Amino acid sequence: MPTQVDCPTCGSKVTWSPKATYRPFCSERCKLIDLGEWANEEKAIPGEPAQIPEQSANDDF
């Protein structure tokens, strides 16, 4: 029996196979909705913010 997963966006069932072009999403629309949520920073991976070291004006690149 093929593995089925829920689409992360709408929850519909997706058969996990090479024929499922947008897996784990059910469609390109659901994939783009998810991408937009990440781009708008509506979704994030939990954790501490990255620490970017400060550079002085004398640092060589």
TrEMBL record:
<dbReference type="GO" id="GO:0006355">
    <property type="term" value="P:regulation of DNA-templated transcription"/>
</dbReference>
<comment type="function">
    <text>Inhibits all the catalytic activities of DNA gyrase by preventing its interaction with DNA. Acts by binding directly to the C-terminal domain of GyrB, which probably disrupts DNA binding by the gyrase.</text>
</comment>
<feature type="binding site">
    <location>
        <position position="10"/>
    </location>
    <ligand>
        <name>Zn(2+)</name>
    </ligand>
</feature>
<comment type="subunit">
    <text>Interacts with GyrB.</text>
</comment>
<feature type="binding site">
    <location>
        <position position="7"/>
    </location>
    <ligand>
        <name>Zn(2+)</name>
    </ligand>
</feature>
<dbReference type="GO" id="GO:0008657">
    <property type="term" value="F:DNA topoisomerase type II (double strand cut, ATP-hydrolyzing) inhibitor activity"/>
</dbReference>
<feature type="binding site">
    <location>
        <position position="26"/>
    </location>
    <ligand>
        <name>Zn(2+)</name>
    </ligand>
</feature>
<dbReference type="Pfam" id="PF03884">
    <property type="entry name" value="YacG"/>
</dbReference>
<comment type="similarity">
    <text>Belongs to the DNA gyrase inhibitor YacG family.</text>
</comment>
<dbReference type="GO" id="GO:0008270">
    <property type="term" value="F:zinc ion binding"/>
</dbReference>
<keyword id="KW-0479">Metal-binding</keyword>
<dbReference type="InterPro" id="IPR005584">
    <property type="entry name" value="DNA_gyrase_inhibitor_YacG"/>
</dbReference>
<protein>
    <recommendedName>
        <fullName>DNA gyrase inhibitor YacG</fullName>
    </recommendedName>
</protein>
<keyword id="KW-0862">Zinc</keyword>
<feature type="binding site">
    <location>
        <position position="30"/>
    </location>
    <ligand>
        <name>Zn(2+)</name>
    </ligand>
</feature>
<dbReference type="InterPro" id="IPR013088">
    <property type="entry name" value="Znf_NHR/GATA"/>
</dbReference>
